[in-house]
Amino acid sequence: MSGSNGSKENSHNKARTSPYPGSKVERSQVPNEKVGWLVEWQDYKPVEYTAVSVLAGPRWADPQISESNFSPKFNEKDGHVERKSKNGLYEIENGRPRNPAGRTGLVGRGLLGRWGPNHAADPIITRWKRDSSGNKIMHPVSGKHILQFVAIKRKDCGEWAIPGGMVDPGEKISATLKREFGEEALNSLQKTSAEKREIEEKLHKL
To answer: Please, what are the domains in the chain?
Structure first.
C-alpha cells in the first residue's frame, strides 16, 4: 500500500478492482500515477456505492453520514467504536473520511459498515510440515523447511484467504481472533454446544 504521494508502482491495487466485490458496480478508473491525494486531479469523479445490505441498517453498520442524529468523531475513539486508523490521521472531505492510501474510484462504504476505519482481525496459524515421525520435511528444490498455514476458501469470490473478520465495538482483538477462527476455519456455528465448548477450550490453549 502506498502513501499519499502515489509513488509506488501498482499501489492500492486491491482497492481499485472492478466490479466492486459482490456487485456489478464499476469503479471510475484510477491510473497508478493518480492514486495519491497529493496529485492534483480536478476531473476525478468517483462512483457512489454503498451496498443495500449496509443501507438496511444492521447493528454492525453506521447510519448514513447525512442523518441528523449521527455525528461520528473521526480520528479518535467514538464511544465503543474505534475510528483511529493504524495508518495515522486521515482527512475529512465534505463530512466524509478519505481513504488514507489514496483514490479508489469509488466513494461510499461499499460492503463496509463503518465510516472511517473498519478494523479486522486475521489470525495467522502456522506449523512446520512434518513426517509421521515428527521430523521436519525439507523442500526438494529449496532445501528449506516447509511452513504450512491455515487458509479458507471464500464463498463470495472463491479465492483462498486467511480466516478473519471485523472487530465488534468494544471487543478485544484476542476475542475477535478466537471467534473468527472458530467460525471460519472450524465451522463452529454448525456445532453442538458441547462441540463449541471443546473448540473454545482448544482456541484458548492455542
So the answer is: 1-118 (no CATH), 121-205 (3.90.79.10)
